Amino acid sequence: MVVNNIDVYLREKGVKPSYQRKRIFEYMMNNLNHPSVNDIYEALINEIPTLSKATVYNTMNLFLEHKLIEVLPIDTNEARYDVFNPKEHGHFKCDVCGNIFDVSIKINVEDISDDLAGFKVDSEIYNFRGTCKACHESGKENQAI
Ligand SMILES: [Zn+2]
Ligand SMILES: [Zn+2]
Predict the structure, then answer these.
(1) Ligand 1 centroid to 40 CA: how many Å?
(2) Which domain range does residue 30 map to?
Protein backbone atom coordinates (compact mmCIF):
# COMPACT_ATOMS: atom_id res chain seq x y z
CA MET A 1 0.00 0.00 0.00
CA VAL A 2 1.34 3.43 -0.93
CA VAL A 3 -0.02 6.55 0.69
CA ASN A 4 1.33 9.73 -0.87
CA ASN A 5 -0.37 12.19 1.40
CA ILE A 6 -1.05 11.01 4.93
CA ASP A 7 -3.03 14.15 5.72
CA VAL A 8 -5.48 13.51 2.88
CA TYR A 9 -5.57 9.77 3.53
CA LEU A 10 -6.48 10.16 7.21
CA ARG A 11 -9.19 12.68 6.33
CA GLU A 12 -10.61 10.31 3.71
CA LYS A 13 -10.84 7.64 6.39
CA GLY A 14 -12.60 10.02 8.75
CA VAL A 15 -9.66 10.64 11.10
CA LYS A 16 -8.71 14.20 11.99
CA PRO A 17 -5.00 14.36 11.10
CA SER A 18 -3.31 15.74 14.21
CA TYR A 19 0.47 15.89 14.20
CA GLN A 20 0.82 12.90 16.53
CA ARG A 21 -1.64 10.79 14.55
CA LYS A 22 0.16 11.57 11.32
CA ARG A 23 3.55 10.66 12.78
CA ILE A 24 2.19 7.43 14.24
CA PHE A 25 0.57 6.46 10.94
CA GLU A 26 3.75 7.35 9.07
CA TYR A 27 5.69 5.14 11.45
CA MET A 28 3.28 2.27 10.72
CA MET A 29 3.77 2.76 6.98
CA ASN A 30 7.56 2.77 7.29
CA ASN A 31 7.81 -0.12 9.73
CA LEU A 32 6.00 -3.13 8.44
CA ASN A 33 7.28 -5.30 11.28
CA HIS A 34 3.96 -5.27 13.15
CA PRO A 35 4.94 -2.93 16.00
CA SER A 36 3.30 -2.94 19.42
CA VAL A 37 2.15 0.20 21.26
CA ASN A 38 5.42 0.04 23.15
CA ASP A 39 7.53 -0.18 19.98
CA ILE A 40 5.80 2.86 18.50
CA TYR A 41 6.12 4.82 21.73
CA GLU A 42 9.83 4.02 22.09
CA ALA A 43 10.49 4.93 18.46
CA LEU A 44 8.76 8.31 18.56
CA ILE A 45 9.26 9.61 22.09
CA ASN A 46 12.52 11.42 21.28
CA GLU A 47 10.96 13.21 18.38
CA ILE A 48 7.63 13.89 20.13
CA PRO A 49 8.43 14.45 23.82
CA THR A 50 4.77 15.13 24.61
CA LEU A 51 3.76 11.66 23.42
CA SER A 52 2.37 9.26 26.01
CA LYS A 53 1.72 5.53 25.77
CA ALA A 54 -1.96 6.26 26.37
CA THR A 55 -1.97 8.51 23.29
CA VAL A 56 -0.39 5.80 21.16
CA TYR A 57 -2.86 3.26 22.53
CA ASN A 58 -5.86 5.53 21.88
CA THR A 59 -4.56 6.38 18.41
CA MET A 60 -4.24 2.68 17.53
CA ASN A 61 -7.83 2.12 18.67
CA LEU A 62 -8.99 5.06 16.58
CA PHE A 63 -7.10 3.71 13.55
CA LEU A 64 -8.64 0.29 14.14
CA GLU A 65 -12.12 1.78 14.32
CA HIS A 66 -11.56 3.53 11.01
CA LYS A 67 -10.00 0.43 9.44
CA LEU A 68 -6.63 2.07 8.83
CA ILE A 69 -4.82 -0.77 10.53
CA GLU A 70 -5.60 -4.22 11.83
CA VAL A 71 -4.62 -5.96 15.02
CA LEU A 72 -3.01 -9.32 14.44
CA PRO A 73 -5.02 -12.29 15.66
CA ILE A 74 -1.84 -13.98 16.80
CA ASP A 75 -1.27 -14.90 20.37
CA THR A 76 1.31 -12.63 21.95
CA ASN A 77 1.53 -10.83 25.27
CA GLU A 78 0.86 -7.48 23.67
CA ALA A 79 -1.23 -6.44 20.68
CA ARG A 80 0.70 -6.15 17.43
CA TYR A 81 -0.57 -4.03 14.58
CA ASP A 82 -0.45 -4.14 10.81
CA VAL A 83 -1.17 -1.38 8.34
CA PHE A 84 -4.42 -2.44 6.76
CA ASN A 85 -3.68 -4.48 3.72
CA PRO A 86 -6.63 -5.67 1.67
CA LYS A 87 -4.52 -8.32 0.02
CA GLU A 88 -4.81 -11.45 2.13
CA HIS A 89 -1.60 -12.47 3.79
CA GLY A 90 -0.74 -14.69 6.67
CA HIS A 91 1.59 -14.20 9.59
CA PHE A 92 4.38 -16.28 11.01
CA LYS A 93 5.45 -15.60 14.57
CA CYS A 94 8.93 -16.67 15.58
CA ASP A 95 8.95 -17.97 19.13
CA VAL A 96 12.67 -17.24 19.42
CA CYS A 97 13.12 -13.62 18.27
CA GLY A 98 9.46 -12.61 18.59
CA ASN A 99 9.33 -11.13 15.08
CA ILE A 100 6.12 -11.49 13.11
CA PHE A 101 6.64 -11.99 9.40
CA ASP A 102 4.17 -11.44 6.57
CA VAL A 103 3.73 -14.54 4.46
CA SER A 104 1.93 -14.60 1.14
CA ILE A 105 -0.81 -17.16 0.75
CA LYS A 106 -0.77 -19.12 -2.51
CA ILE A 107 -3.93 -21.13 -2.14
CA ASN A 108 -7.52 -20.19 -2.79
CA VAL A 109 -9.98 -20.58 0.02
CA GLU A 110 -12.05 -23.02 -2.10
CA ASP A 111 -9.03 -25.31 -2.32
CA ILE A 112 -8.55 -25.50 1.44
CA SER A 113 -11.62 -27.47 2.38
CA ASP A 114 -14.59 -28.99 0.60
CA ASP A 115 -16.56 -28.19 3.72
CA LEU A 116 -16.54 -24.52 2.68
CA ALA A 117 -18.43 -25.22 -0.54
CA GLY A 118 -21.43 -22.92 -0.73
CA PHE A 119 -20.20 -20.72 2.11
CA LYS A 120 -19.46 -17.06 1.53
CA VAL A 121 -16.09 -16.39 3.16
CA ASP A 122 -15.58 -12.81 4.32
CA SER A 123 -12.34 -13.21 6.16
CA GLU A 124 -9.39 -15.54 5.96
CA ILE A 125 -6.80 -15.61 8.70
CA TYR A 126 -3.60 -17.60 8.50
CA ASN A 127 -1.32 -17.83 11.48
CA PHE A 128 1.85 -19.82 11.73
CA ARG A 129 4.22 -20.18 14.64
CA GLY A 130 7.63 -21.67 15.09
CA THR A 131 11.23 -20.65 14.48
CA CYS A 132 12.11 -18.22 11.68
CA LYS A 133 14.81 -19.04 9.15
CA ALA A 134 17.48 -16.81 10.72
CA CYS A 135 16.93 -18.20 14.22
CA HIS A 136 16.73 -21.74 12.90
CA GLU A 137 20.01 -21.41 10.99
CA SER A 138 21.83 -19.85 13.92
CA GLY A 139 20.67 -22.66 16.18
CA LYS A 140 18.98 -20.22 18.53
CA GLU A 141 15.80 -22.26 18.66
CA ASN A 142 17.28 -24.34 21.45
CA GLN A 143 17.32 -21.24 23.61
CA ALA A 144 13.60 -20.60 23.15
CA ILE A 145 11.74 -20.31 26.40
ZN1 LIG B 1 13.38 -15.64 14.80
ZN1 LIG C 1 1.28 -8.36 8.19
Answers:
(1) 20
(2) 6-71
